Amino acid sequence: MNAPRDNIVTRSLAQIGDCGLFLLQILAAVPRSMRHARETVRQLWFVGAMSLIIIMVCGLFVGMVLGLQLYDVLSIFGGTSATGTVVAIAIYRELGPVVTALLFAGRAGTSVTAEIGLMRATDQIAAMEMMAVDPIAYVAVPRFLAGIIAMPLLCCVFCALGIFGATAAMLVNLLQRMGRL
Fold first, then answer.
1. How far is the C-alpha of 63 from the C-alpha of 135, rounded, in Å?
2. How many domains does the chain have?
């Protein structure tokens, strides 16, 4: 009865170890990949700039919803003046990085995975090895570096638009309550 569980545990640990070894291979190939700086810039455009629209839209709407909800909750206790501070803290500390990472993984992660999978299926990776081009340095490292560069920038954009969305939503809510809208 313990044999299948041990087998699953052993396979899971082996897979985690393989991922760790792959990360070490990527980190070791970073100096060699500096010859392929143009590919890194292309991937930065592909995973960073192409993810910008979904990050901006989601940041705006997350901020709007958070601002409206917190305004209603804090108005019960008479603390509506703290709404902006609470929204900023919630977005910068918690929601910004987490939601940005989920959106980035969903958009850029799937497209990079599909691209590398297609390269493997059409034997482009094997062709690179035959031409003495290191596929880790040419394929994996530029995408890894592009993700590392793009992720904090996208998080800043998400947070800024979240704060803007909360401000806009609270302003519209305030004007409606005053009867000016």
1. 41
2. 1
Placement of tokens 């990360």 in the chain? 23
- CA–CA distances in Å: residue 62 to residues 25, 58, 119, 139: 38, 6, 36, 34
pTM (predicted TM-score):
0.85
- What are the angstrom distances between the C-alpha of 84 and each of 54, 65, 79, 89, 120? 24, 13, 11, 9, 49
User: Is residue 19 domain-resident?
Assistant: no
In a domain, 17, yes or no: no
pLDDT in tens, 134-153: 899 999 999 999 999 999 99
**Domain containing residue 164:** 31-178
Separation of alpha carbons 94 and 85, rounded Å: 14
- For residue 153, being part of any structural domain is answered with yes
Nearest to 143 by CA among 2, 3, 33: 33
